[in-house]
């Protein structure tokens, strides 16, 4: 099979993690990198023996590429992914999928009409613990799943420094919810079997804006809490924060009619012959980013819908939009 030729757009920490992930695979070759910071682009190009660009449109036109990773600030996810899809390239786009569901729908429709793969980088699905938990669930160990809890708290962890776009709604789409809440939400929703969301009730707070980056336009949430209901009558409780007066940490819990799963660390709660049993599975060590980029390339090469599909991107954005709408109106948001 011919190697898939990839370019990376945006060379912050996630962009460099995608690069490393692709390089771990013999099915891929990275041929170009792009960042508006010319020094960073050149440094990464030299280190990896690839071409450097500072303009993604020039890279899409000149470099011999099959696919790109879009690792840019949130407001650039939709326009740059659309540029890449229109140029005939498969796209792996960082989280959150877009600023809102409307953008995500446009991205999905464009990928479909161009018959190209559009996948979102929700890397928690590719951690060793998630893969193992999903395995237990697929074997029926949990029975019918009807409850999920997704928690991602930072006691103090508002993005700062030069990355003030994170706290500016026009460029980020939202705060803690869209930035880290999306990771926890996606992971729990995935383990629950991605049921169709039907309604959302939530609140979002901005209580720590005085701790944000200097001279920033901090108009987003620093914490959010929500209850999501699904068409199969399952419910999911989501809690997330960049700043909260409680300990930081992440917890994903899923419960079904036969058993439950909790992580991290991964624990399975089940019953054998009427006895309650706790299982502590041995979790292999793997690199979630390398698993993620390998899955993207495999989906392209086998022409298969990726695990984090463009449709999942739309539904995730519908849930996030719904929480922000519910917080603003004080009412439950219905999702169609
Ligand atoms: N999956 C994860 O765990 C994870 C972790 C952190 C960030 N992210 C996501 O990755 C994305 C980028 O986040 P970040 O922390 O790297 O942000 P960042 O601001 O630190 O870096 C973004 C990079 O993109 C470059 N850039 C900005 N505009 C550009 C343009 N028009 N053309 C070319 N380059 C441009 C910047 O120079 C910078 O190097 C965000 O969407 C964020 O949500 C994901």
Q: Which ligands does the model contain, each kind named once?
A: nicotinamide-adenine-dinucleotide
The helix fraction, in percent, is 25-40%
Number of domains: 2
- Average pLDDT confidence is 97
Q: Count the helices. How many?
A: 10
Which residues form runs of ≥5 with pLDDT under 50? none
Cα radius of gyration in angstroms: 20 Å
CATH class bucket of the largest domain: Alpha Beta
Lay out the secondary structure.
Blueprint: E1 4-9, H1 13-23, E2 28-34, H2 38-48, E3 51-53, H3 56-62, E4 67-70, H4 77-86, E5 90-94, H5 101-114, E6 118-121, H6 128-138, E7 145-153, H7 169-172, H8 176-191, E8 197-205, E9 223-230, E10 235-241, E11 249-256, E12 260-263, E13 267-272, E14 275-279, H9 288-302, H10 310-329, E15 333-334
Parallel strand pairs: 1-2, 1-4, 2-3, 4-5, 5-6, 7-10
Antiparallel strand pairs: 7-11, 8-9, 8-15, 9-10, 11-12, 12-13, 13-14
Helix pairs in contact: 1-9, 4-5, 5-10
Bound molecules: nicotinamide-adenine-dinucleotide (NAD).
Description:
With 336 residues, this protein is α/β, with parallel strands linked by helices. It has two domains: 4-123 and 289-308, NAD(P)-binding Rossmann-like Domain (Rossmann fold, 3-Layer(aba) Sandwich); 125-286 and 317-334, Dihydrodipicolinate Reductase, domain 2. 35% of the residues lie in helices and 26% in strands. It has helices spanning 13-23, 38-48, 56-62, 77-86, 101-114, 128-138, 169-172, 176-191, 288-302, 310-329, and strands spanning 4-9, 28-34, 51-53, 67-70, 90-94, 118-121, 145-153, 197-205, 223-230, 235-241, 249-256, 260-263, 267-272, 275-279, 333-334. It is globular, with a radius of gyration of 20 Å. Nicotinamide-adenine-dinucleotide binds next to helix 1.
